[in-house]
Amino acid sequence: MKNDVRWDKALYTTDTYNIEGLDGHAYAKNGIEVQTSSPLNDNPGTNPEQLLGMSLCTCLVGTMEVILKEHKIDVEPRAHAKISYVRGKGHNEFLVHAQVAVPGQTLSQTRALVSEVENRCCVSQLLRGNDNYSLEAVLDLD
Question: Tell me, which fold does domain 48-138 have in CATH?
Answer without folding.
Answer: GMP Synthetase; Chain A, domain 3 (3.30.300)
